[in-house]
Amino acid sequence: MGNSENTEFLRRNSEAVSEPPVLADDRRTVTRADLAEAVYGRVGLSRKESAALVEMVLGEMTETLLKGETVKLSSFGSFVVRSKGERLGRNPKTGVEVPITPRRVMVFKPSNILKARINGQAGVDEDD
């Protein structure tokens, strides 16, 4: 599928994937396979196409984050890469100061809508 076909496909099927995936058991972790199975069950793509679609979306998100850009998913949240400077830390066991090197970290900031849904509240009318 080309980019325009993917966009059109996702637009047509956005209602079909708006529900959270139903897991086969009581696991609390959703895997790539679970996401692909949910796409397969709701959208009607083959299992192979569903897995490829999930990989394509995750790959695009990864590439965007590697460039230092923000990934914002409306009504879900934002993935942001932040730079942390060098600082002094302390070994809690010995009390010895240790330098912590500068690094980049990824942070997820949930939208107010997602926070409200997690807390069992009605959806917040916001495009966050």
Entry keywords:
single chain; 128 residues; alpha+beta; HU Protein, Chain A; 2 domains; three-stranded antiparallel sheet; two-stranded antiparallel ribbon
Q: What can you tell me about this protein's structure?
A:
The protein contains 4 helices and 5 strands, in the order αααβββββα. It has helices at 3-12, 32-43, 47-66, 112-118, and strands at residues 71-73, 77-84, 87-90, 97-100, 103-110. The longest helix has 20 residues, at 47-66. It is elongated, with a radius of gyration of 19 Å.
Distance between the termini: 29 Å
Uncertain stretches of 5 or more adjacent residues? none
Report the β-strand fraction as a percent range: 15-25%
Helix-strand topology string: HHHEEEEEH
Biggest sheet layout: 3 strands, antiparallel
The helix tally amounts to 4
Could you say which overall geometry the principal axes of the C-alpha atoms support?
elongated
Spatial ordering of strands, largest sheet: 1-2-5
Structural class: alpha+beta
Helix content: 25-40%
Rg measurement, Å: 19 Å
